[in-house]
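ok new one. same drill as before - structure tokens go in, u give me an amino acid for every spot. 141 of them this time. try not to just spam alanines like last time pls lmao
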């Protein structure tokens, strides 16, 4: 079947994916997601309210709060900017959860690999929930 524009549907889909990839490669936006998934595709990276913050680098992460709301970007541990890599791999505040729920070789895995591990996702949701609870408690009443 040929479309009105003369292209086959499969060619149209390929062209669209190539344009999307080129736009993704050259964009300054969405870099957190691009770092996780540099090749565009039609599969979904399933998250939820908490995991999406780690996929995108947005939300309760101090780095994001600093960039958009002029808050302190330094993690409450005081050792680094709180980005998703610090939070997931390095922050001492969450070492107990990592010891309990992460695979022993977690430091050799990518963030994407960890986000695909159901047990790790549960631990990361717990971390993000606790972060949000602290943020809500710090709001002026
Ligand atoms: Zn920290």
């Amino acid at each position: 079947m040929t479309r009105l524009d003369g292209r086959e549907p499969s060619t149209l889909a390929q062209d669209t994916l190539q344009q999307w990839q080129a736009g993704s490669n050259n964009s300054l936006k969405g870099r957190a997601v691009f770092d996780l998934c540099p090749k565009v595709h039609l599969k979904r990276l399933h998250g939820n309210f908490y995991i999406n913050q780690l996929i995108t680098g947005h939300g309760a992460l101090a780095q994001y709060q600093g960039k958009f709301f002029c808050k302190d970007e330094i993690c409450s541990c005081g050792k680094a900017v709180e980005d998703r890599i610090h939070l997931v791999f390095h922050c001492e505040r969450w070492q107990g959860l990592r010891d309990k729920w992460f695979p022993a070789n977690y430091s050799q895995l990518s963030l994407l690999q960890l986000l695909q591990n159901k047990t790790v996702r549960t631990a990361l949701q717990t971390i993000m929930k606790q972060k949000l609870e602290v943020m809500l408690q710090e709001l002026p009443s």
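The CA atoms of residues 14 and 60 lie 37 Å apart. and btw The mean pLDDT is 89.
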